[in-house]
Amino acid sequence: MDKIRLVIADDSDFVRDGLKIIFELDDEFEVIGTAANGKEAVELVTARKVDIVLMDLEMPVMDGIEATKQITAQGFSKVLVLTTFDDDERIQKALQNGAKGYLIKNHTPDKIKQMIKALYSGGNVLDESIFDKITGAGHLNNSGFDEKLFTQREGEIIKAVAEGLSNKDIAQKLFISEGTVKNHISSVLNKACLTHRTQIAVYYLTGKK
User: Fold this and answer.
1) Which of 16, 29, 118, 188 could bridge across to 34 with cysteines, CB 3.0–4.6 Å?
2) What pLDDT, on the 0 to 100 scale, is given for residue 166?
3) Which residues of the chain are in CATH 1.10.10.10 domains?
4) Are 63 and 85 in contact (CB under 8 A)?
């Protein structure tokens, strides 16, 4: 298995250096570089092949929201927000600008690694506290979700995406090929006017795009 190539963007030296040490001790990861602000993160991703960017939101020069937008627009790297902020506005802006995961900085290194692997494999990653916030402390509130737009199979895949399953996991669960899963997800994105799978989960859970 190829190493997961990371960029760590955070304005805290302590956080950057700590995460860099943690990942460099694990053979499954390669730290391509670290950035003290969003501008540096964009430059790193533009210059090097990067799989995942761990992105803080509050940074000087260029914040994580704008950096996420510029990085995801390139179409090669996935952004996993790793921050202390869990307010609705930041969550919404991060997801709208292309972030494919959102974690709060209170997890163990092993948990963060697990989340990175899930994102790398095609799953979507939402912190449990964010998930609870979106679903109303665990109660689904998706009255704005128009299930009539989708076929029965697409509905099954939407629910699986919202559960955080990767394409491979969905294929195994529904006894179909990964290629078929990808085709259905593309169809869902087009019908709902969305751009990536994390938005599918948010739309299903909240009814909001």
Assistant:
1) 16
2) 85
3) 147-206
4) no
Domain 4-135 -> CATH class: alpha beta
Sheet holding 125-126, edge to edge: 29-35, 4-9, 52-55, 78-83, 101-104, 125-126
pTM for the model: 0.72
Query: Which one-letter DSSP state was computed for residue 148?
Result: G
**Three-class DSSP category at 141:** coil
> pLDDT per residue over 60-98, tens digit each?
999 999 999 999 999 889 999 999 987 778 887 888 888
Cα dist. 94→129, 149, 150, 156, 183 in Å?
16, 26, 26, 26, 26
What's the CATH class of domain 147-206? mainly alpha
**Cβ(172)–Cβ(178) below 8 Å:** no
Asked if 135 and 154 count as a contact pair (C-beta separation under 8 A), the reply is no
Q: Which of 31, 37, 85 is nearest to 64 (CA)?
A: 37
72: Cβ contacts below 8 Å, ≥ 6 apart:
78, 79, 97, 98, 99, 100
